Each structure stands twice: as C-alpha cells, then as structure tokens.
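Q: Here's a chain of 151 amino acids. Please give me its 3D structure as tokens.
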Amino acid sequence: MVPEPVEGADIYAAAGTFSELQLHEATKWVELSFDVTDRDRYFVCQVIGESMNKVIPNGSYCLFRRDEGGTRNGKIVLAQSTGFRDAEFGSGYTVKRYHSTKNSNAESWGHDSITLYPESDDPVYEPIELSEDELVDFKVVGVFERVIGKG
C-alpha cells in the first residue's frame, strides 16, 4: 500500500513500488537555495514511504536534476512508468537506486533489464526488476541530488 501524499503536494514519488497514477498539471513552486545554479535543470519532488529511508526520510522534499541520459548505474533516480495501467490516467513514480544490464552489437545497444534497488532499514522492501518488455513504458525522469526539506 502506498502512503497518502502530504496535502498540497503537486506530485510525489513512492519509496516502495511505483505510486498510483498521477496527473500533475498544476505546479506548486519551491524556492531553491542560492547554491543551485542553472535552475532550469532541476526540480523538487516529495518522496513518500520508507523504502529509501537510509538516504531519504519519508515525506522529504528532494532536489532532482533532470535526466539527460548517460550512465545512471549506481545513482538514485526518480523513475516513471505508465505501463502498469492506462497512460491516459497519469503516471506512477518511484525513487530507487538504479542498475541496468545492457546488450550491444556494432550497430546498436539496448537494455536487457533494469533493477531498481531500495535502501531501507526494513527488509520487506525488495528490488523492482523490469524486463526488456516492461521497459517500453519506463523512463528515468531525474537523478537525486539531495534532500532539501521535510514535508
């Protein structure tokens, strides 16, 4: 079960499995500190749940850098999946440590699988393993930078 978001939050990510589907047309603005440069590359998301509690406390507002590709192995990411339900109704999000296995040949490369690992004191949380077929509706939205506040 996914905990409820804090009232007033625009969008949130579940630190568990993917959150229920969300639409995020309205925006709640958060003032970033002066040490954040190139602000167009960053956004804030509230993380709800305990599966990342070794790094991100439940309810924290976190700074993410927009994903621009490249390797993500070993990084904490905000991931989006629309494949588990109808994409027309929104997207589900989760925050986890990213690991992928790839295949390649002389002309192209692709992912064999992606595994999203929890970092929790609670052993009930297990990795989310996505096969090649499940990657069609999956994308990394951002890369975790730091916790900026508690909700």
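Q: Can you summarize the key feature?
A: The chain has one domain: 12-150.
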